[in-house]
Design goal:
Blueprint lengths: L7 H4 L6 H32 L6 H15 L4 H22 L5 H6 L2 H24 L4 H14 L1 H11 L3 H21 L3 H5 L3 H11 L3 H8 L4 H16 L1 H11 L13 H8 L2 H14 L5 H24 L3 H33 L3
Helix pairs in contact: 2-3, 2-4, 2-17, 3-17, 4-16, 4-17, 6-7, 6-18, 7-8, 7-9, 7-18, 8-9, 8-14, 9-12, 9-18, 11-12, 11-13, 11-18, 12-13
Length: 357
């Protein structure tokens, strides 16, 4: 069995003194080097193609996996890699809350928000059912469902520590989702003339089906400014559902995690049920909504969250077992493909209802 992200033997960093923290540095620095390489490759993409069709988060996993295939990190590196895979990811998820405001939800119009939310819930249920019917494990099925229905890689990365998913599950779900994401970005504009979609209709469709915000821009810019604005708005509504989704999974899916034995104070029990970083996510969102976070701090917070997420994905890649991915690759691809087709179909239905031609 692969090591889980929240394995206490590997993940908990040495505490108390700088001397005990030193062993973490080697693994963290390795993840940092992989992160720098991934960010550099994405920058080259943006310069040559205008948009990052394959984001640094995916590149980091691929680079980490390639390194792990050629060389297995020894004991010197493992503590820092494990720390990067869990603790840095949790901090990144908490910081993501600063990107959201409750005002954006109300400004979007409750009809659109409600429709998108309903389709996301439906997509979660159908995708999970498809994945399980194809024989995928429960945790991997949850990751595929969340990635397909919410926001691709970011959703997978946020949900993984909550359900105790393994590195291999995370790497395989992100890798195959990323491939389909690129195909969608390149192929979705073909539906504009085929289905005679207006800019508004296409914007809704793109916002509902494309995984990442940068990919939404890549898919909608050629269709016009209106498509870009609406696509981004719909996509952000989907992203806003990440916090409530992870909180629900934390509460109702506690049996999926290797939690400590029951007992202790109410505070200990609470954080065993709802992870600290989910609480921090909502605290950050509340502070942003109340304008208690200065505007000048938002960009650095977002960049920090992005870098920490990429580092955690690099760490996951460095622990990936390619043999496990090979065994589930075909089924994951089938699950993502079928789920994506379903999402496109129901999104087209939403388009016809919300924005008739």
């Amino acid at each position: 069995m692969p090591d889980r992200i929240d394995s206490p033997d590997e993940v908990r960093p040495p505490a108390g003194t700088i001397r005990k923290a030193v062993p973490l540095l080697w693994g963290i620095m390795l993840c940092g080097c992989v992160t720098l390489a991934a960010v550099a490759i994405q920058a080259v993409e943006e310069r040559l193609l205008g948009h990052p069709y394959i984001e640094a988060i995916v590149i980091a996993i691929l680079l980490g996996t390639a390194i792990r295939t050629l060389w297995e990190p020894g004991p010197r590196w493992r503590a820092g890699i494990a720390f990067s895979a869990k603790q840095l990811l949790e901090i990144a998820v908490a910081l993501l809350g600063a990107s959201l405001t409750f005002a954006a939800i109300s400004a979007s119009g409750f009809a659109l928000v409600g429709s998108v939310a309903a389709l996301v819930v439906l997509s979660l249920a159908v995708t999970f059912g498809i994945s399980r019917s194809l024989g995928l494990p429960v945790r991997l099925s949850i990751l595929v469902a969340c990635g397909n229905s919410i926001c691709g890689n970011s959703a997978i990365a946020a949900v993984a520590p909550v359900i105790g998913a393994s590195r291999d599950d995370v790497a395989s779900s992100i890798s195959f989702t990323a491939v389909l994401g690129v195909i969608v970005v390149l192929g979705l504009p073909l539906l504009i003339p085929l289905l005679q979609l207006t800019e508004t209709q296409y914007g809704i469709l793109a916002g509902m089906t494309v995984y990442a915000v940068p990919q939404v821009l890549a898919a909608t810019v050629p269709a016009g400014v209106v498509s870009t604005q609406i696509g981004t708005l719909v996509k952000l509504i989907r992203v806003m559902m990440l916090g409530p989704l992870v909180a629900c999974i934390a509460v109702f899916g506690r049996s999926l995690r290797a939690d400590p034995a029951p007992g202790g104070s109410w505070r200990t029990k609470f954080f065993q049920t709802v992870p600290w970083f989910i609480v921090a996510f909502f605290v950050m969102a509340t502070l942003r909504s109340l304008s208690l976070l200065p505007d000048a701090a938002i960009f650095p917070i977002r960049k920090t969250a992005n870098v920490l997420t990429i580092m955690s994905m690099a760490a996951l890649g460095l622990g990936v077992d390619l043999r496990v991915i090979g065994r589930v690759g075909g089924r994951v691809t089938a699950a993502v493909t079928l789920s994506l087709l379903f999402l496109i179909v129901i999104s087209l239905g939403l388009v016809r209802v919300v924005a008739p031609a």
